[in-house]
Design goal:
heterotrimer, A mainly alpha (312), B mainly alpha (624), C alpha/beta (182), B: mainly alpha, two-stranded antiparallel sheet, 23 helices, 5 strands, globular, C: 182 residues, alpha/beta, five-stranded parallel beta sheet
């Protein structure tokens, strides 16, 4: 029973951590973007203010059951994936379910939210939403190819499909996967550009022509909940990348070790997060087919090289 | 009387009776068809013992009918889905013409498939196979539309399959002097060492029904042209007969003991070669069918292409030849039967209530047909392979088998591409029919009658159960796999394992999803409950513009245009074109032949004279 | 007076108003020439985002409706529609002299003179054009009102809907708006 209690507390801690970190990263990116544009920019906790405001809206509208459920799908997907991703290596406070699911599962579970969200956006009947969804799904077919190639390379190279095992192997050999199989890392990094949907791959939201696309009919609590889900997802993707390619983080269970582990995790995730953000600052937007072709070009070639590298 | 005879008798009698009673009323005819299939399934699941068989001789040929664990697995699909589909047909066919012929052939197809499952010898297997094929052909051309184009295509490909199968049967008889399937297997007819042609000919025969590339071109048209309540069986169960045959051949081929053979190395090599070929054929089938599915505007056609894609996955799974892979294939076969059956039922319900399945004409049916939508939603989640439903279990095992056991790393990418692109048409299907603008044209649409809703919901519930407890299906699959030569097949109720020892625990997954779902659903619903109001689909932000009531805001045409543009090179090739060119070539050949066989009696007489003259001239050299 | 109002708020309301104050999603309805000042206000030189002000793409997400300049009668209909699609609490800023009294178009046949006869306005920004400093000062004024809890014009609109509708219908001859169940 005590074990279960720790697990539940650990799960709640994980959710709070993911939420806080994701939201703060979003705020930091806004601040940094502003500084790059020679502005002062909003405060770092601006995203929390936005969320609080959205949640304290007095009225909300929904276009029907699926529209009502759209944020629910996202949170289900985000929350479930979060439980299956190792946050800190060998730390009892974040045990979760890391041994009970693997990469293939995560790939599919991460799609769950987008598809549910797409259904919700579909029910609003706004043509802009549907166009945004088709763009998003098409782009997904684009970036999933190099991403999966990279993952297959990892799985083949170390004969495991579990994230925990890949982390352990990196800890034992002392070599991060980004050096053990650099091509896989590069392919996954290119895929991450599409995953985070910063410029030049911000074709889904596209405020200029699609009026923010799929979310154009959502406001108030719906938009707020989606925002939280999106933030958790940002943390999930970053942690996944860090776990797979950058050796993860974590030293043990003690308080000091936990704090140090979290510090390392934040450092690694943040530096990784800067890649799509930096790329976005200097890029205009692609058209959808250009974006898809982009991912099917060099990133896929790198992925193929990564798999061949892994086999031999 | 013996249960085998009884079941087939009930089915054939049901077919005849529903044909006769169909002249009175289509409902009576449908009820008779339903009752006969239900009775047959009741007998099948209760009365027949596993492993029992009967022998009798007919015209001097020894025939054997029996039930093995492998047949039982497919019996679940055929009779389970058959019962639900026939119940569904009653309402679906209510106001159609010539229903007596439809029900006659419908029950006959079920009888044919049941016979295939019972058949332990090649002769009755082939006879029942032909009954199934002919009855389904009659249903395909039932509507009277596209008979020339689609009916003939189906007939030709079925004939190719039947002839190659017949040739294989004759060869087996010639080589091993037996018609019994088990004897042929024990003698090594499928093991690819002693003979290469028998397995390949049989695979061609079964590949036609399983719609494997390049023999798939008949399928989209035929699936689309048949009445929807039969397409449920066509795609859900009949295509699985091809899977049954392929599994039988490939399973025995891959598990055959080659240690004693001198040509061990080379034959093993050639088996791997064949394995890779079939796997890649399956993979390419999946990709091409998916690409074509997502440009369809007709929901039924979309599902038809999607069926071919899913059968491609099953082929890939069978071709891995590993325990996990074959298990994945058989699991996918069962689950595909469930969700594709449910989806075709959904399409049928929409067709009946709204009058069309063209997604550019109807949209926004979700409020009018909530139960149909629920079924569609669950089935689509299973089709897309998203956790926690049954489809995911199959996909997971397939990927793990390809990565961990079969070393087909690039085939994984092909499959993954196909199943990611499958999200596109999955979304298209749900959006096209149920979501989007609620237009005036569909205002009068009502929910389908209860006899159509019940089968759909049963299938939807089955999908949820198979997602949480796939072990319920693993247990018949495991015994079935032992029949086709695999040893020590292990399975768990709701934990999946691969050979590298990684696990996927569906119980924890279910609990996590449940907890998150309940809490967040309560939060989003209760928070600001009073301030939340539901608005219609015309109340959308259109830059302040107020749409007229009959103003069309539906986005349906050229749905995935950016994707199609990006993937344009992949759309250039088409198997249809290649077959057409082959057909043109053959026609030229036949035209040439016609110059010899002119149809003129004088010419033939001339040939005879020339022949005799030649015989006389060369009589010394020819008849020494 | 300010302190009195603050005392009346409960702690929850205080926090909510504080967050509303610092996060204003602006639906910039570029009706007239005033729209040209919006980019200047938002971008590097004046940087409205440091006050938590950012643009919103659709009325569903927006808090503030910014009417920039003269309002033609045709446009009024769209503005009303956008305003009614926004979710409570929502605020309106009238931007430039034209929204106050018609400005230089006071005698035009096809523009309206006073915006607050048709939708309730929280803050007016004077000038033709008001410079970005003035715009930001207007936003700060709105933030003060929100913090004090006095920016309740959306509720006022619902209460006096008949009066507003009558005024609106006087201007818009072909009235074809959906009925709302507030």
């Amino acid at each position: 029973m005590e074990d279960l209690g720790i697990k539940i507390i650990g799960a709640l801690l994980t959710v709070i951590l993911a939420f806080t970190v994701g939201m703060t990263y979003g705020g930091i990116v806004r601040k940094l973007t502003a500084r790059v544009q020679n502005r002062r920019g909003p405060v770092i906790w601006q995203n929390f203010l936005d969320l609080l405001k959205l949640q304290s809206k007095k009225t909300n509208i929904a276009h029907g059951f699926m529209g009502h459920m759209a944020p629910v799908w996202i949170i289900i997907s985000a929350g479930t994936v979060l439980m299956f991703i190792p946050i800190l290596n060998g730390n009892l406070w974040f045990p979760n379910l890391t041994f009970h699911g693997d990469l293939i599962f995560l790939l599919y579970m991460m799609v769950f939210g987008s598809l549910g969200m797409a259904l919700g956006a579909g029910q609003t009947g706004n043509p802009n939403s549907a166009i945004g969804v088709t763009r998003g799904l098409s782009q997904m077919v684009g970036f999933e190819i190099p991403f999966v190639l990279a993952l297959v390379a990892l799985m083949v190279q170390y004969k495991t499909t579990s994230i925990q095992d890949i982390m352990d192997i990196q800890a034992q050999t002392g070599t991060w996967m980004m050096f053990a199989n650099p091509f896989a890392f590069l392919a996954a990094l290119f895929a991450s550009l599409g995953m985070f949907r910063y410029s030049p791959f911000d074709i889904v939201g596209a405020p200029a022509e699609l009026a923010s696309g799929p979310v154009s009919e959502f406001g108030g609590k719906y938009l707020g909940t989606m925002m939280s889900g999106g933030s958790i997802f940002a943390f999930i993707k970053l942690t996944l990348y860090v776990d797979l390619f950058m050796g993860g983080a974590g030293f043990g269970t003690g308080i000091l070790a936990t704090i140090m582990g979290l510090g390392i995790l934040l450092l690694k995730t943040f530096s990784l997060y800067m890649v799509p953000v930096f790329y976005g600052w200097i890029s205009p937007r692609y058209r959808t087919e250009q974006a898809i072709r982009y991912f099917w070009g060099w990133p896929t070639a790198l992925g193929v090289i990564a798999v061949i590298w892994a086999i031999f | 009387m013996n249960s085998f005879f009884l079941i087939l008798l009930i089915l054939f009698a049901g077919a005849g009776l529903s044909f006769v009673l169909g002249k009175i009323s289509s409902i009576i005819s449908g009820t008779v068809a339903f009752l006969s299939i239900a009775a047959a399934s009741a007998l099948f699941f209760t009365q027949i013992e596993m492993g029992s068989f009967i022998e009798f001789s007919l015209g001097g040929i020894q025939l054997q009918w029996g039930l093995n664990s492998y047949g039982y697995l497919f019996g679940i699909i055929v009779l389970g889905l058959g019962t639900l589909a026939s119940l569904y047909s009653i309402s679906y066919m209510q106001n159609k013409e010539r229903t007596s012929g439809f029900y006659f052939n419908f029950v006959l197809v079920i009888a044919g498939m049941t016979g295939i499952i019972f058949a332990n010898d090649f002769i009755s297997f082939f006879i029942f196979w032909e009954i199934m094929t002919w009855a389904s052909y009659l249903i395909i051309i039932y509507s009277g539309k596209n008979v020339k184009k689609i009916g003939i295509k189906y007939m030709i490909f079925s004939a190719i399959g039947a002839y190659s199968m017949l040739t294989a049967i004759v060869m087996i008889k010639g080589q091993y002097d037996t018609f019994l399937i088990s004897d042929a297997i024990n003698a090594g007819a499928f093991n690819f060492i002693d003979n290469i042609y028998i397995p390949i000919l049989l695979l061609i025969g079964f590949g036609v029904k399983a719609a494997t590339m390049p023999l798939h071109v008949w399928a989209p048209g035929a699936y689309n042209n048949a009445p929807t309540s039969f397409t449920v069986i066509f795609s859900g169960a009949m295509s699985k007969m091809g899977v049954l045959g392929m599994g039988l051949v490939l399973g025995h081929m891959f598990t055959a003991d080659r240690s004693g053979s001198l040509t061990n190395f080379f034959s093993g090599f050639s088996v791997i070669y064949l394995q890779q070929t079939i796997g890649w054929l399956g993979g390419i089938t999946a990709v091409i069918a998916t690409l074509y599915a997502l440009i369809q505007d007709d929901a039924k056609k979309l599902l038809a292409y999607s069926s071919i894609a899913q059968l491609g996955y099953i082929t890939v799974g069978l071709a891995t030849g590993t325990k996990l892979g074959v298990m994945a294939a058989l699991f996918l076969a069962v689950v595909h039967g469930i969700f594709k059956g449910a989806l075709f039922m959904v399409v049928g319900a929409v067709e009946r209530q709204a009058g069309t399945t063209d997604m550019t004409k109807i949209s926004g049916l979700i409020r009018k047909m909530p139960f149909t939508f629920l079924t569609a939603l669950i089935s689509i989640i299973a089709l897309a392979g998203i956790p926690p439903l049954g489809g995911f279990v199959g996909k997971w095992m397939l990927y793990e088998a390809l990565i961990t056991e079969s070393n087909s790393y690039f085939l994984v990418i092909v499959i993954f591409f196909s199943s990611t692109a499958a999200f596109l048409y999955s979304y298209r299907f749900l959006f096209g029919l149920f979501l989007g603008q609620e237009e005036k044209e569909t205002e009068q649409v009502k929910e389908a009658p209860i006899t159509m809703i019940i089968p759909m919901l049963v299938l939807a519930i089955l999908l949820v159960i198979t997602g949480a407890f796939p072990g319920l299906i693993f247990s018949p699959i495991a015994t079935a796999m032992e029949f086709i030569g695999f040893k020590d097949v292990t399975w768990n109720m709701s934990v999946l394992n691969n050979v590298w020892g990684n696990e996927m625990n569906l119980t924890y997954l279910g609990i996590t999803i449940g907890v998150v779902f309940v809490s967040i659903f309560a939060f989003i619903t209760l928070k600001g409950l009073k301030g939340t109001r539901y608005v219609g689909t015309k109340d959308i932000s259109t830059s302040g513009e107020i749409p007229y009531e009959n103003e069309n805001l539906t986005f349906q045409i050229n749905f995935f245009q950016p994707f199609v543009r990006a993937a344009a090179p992949m759309y250039k090739r088409s198997m249809n074109k290649i077959w057409n060119e082959l057909g043109n070539g053959l026609e030229a050949l036949f035209n040439f032949t016609r110059k010899i066989y002119t149809g003129n009696g004088q010419t033939y007489a001339l040939f005879v004279v020339i022949f005799l003259v030649l015989m006389l001239l060369f009589k010394d050299t020819l008849f020494v | 007076m300010t302190s009195n109002n603050k005392d009346k708020q409960t702690i929850v309301e205080y926090i909510q108003n504080w967050s509303r104050k610092h996060s204003l999603f602006v639906m910039a309805y570029g009706t007239g020439c005033g729209a040209i000042e919006i980019p200047a206000t938002m971008t590097s030189r004046y940087d409205a985002e440091r006050f938590g002000i950012r643009g919103a793409a659709t009325p569903r997400q927006a808090d503030v409706l910014l009417i920039t300049g003269y309002l033609a009668t045709k446009t009024l209909k769209r503005v009303i529609r956008v305003y009614e699609q926004m979710q409570d609490p929502k605020y309106v800023i009238g931007f430039g002299s034209c929204t106050i009294n018609g400005g230089m178009y006071y005698d035009s046949y096809n523009t309206i003179n006073a915006l607050d006869r048709y939708i309730p306005v929280d803050v007016y920004i004077n000038g033709c054009m008001p410079r970005p400093e003035a715009v930001i000062s207007g936003f700060v004024q709105l933030q003060k009102q929100i913090a004090e809890g006095t920016a309740n014009n959306a509720a006022k609109y619902k209460e006096n809907l008949e009066w507003y509708r009558a005024n609106q219908k006087k201007i818009i001859k072909n009235w074809r708006m959906p009925d709302y169940n507030w």
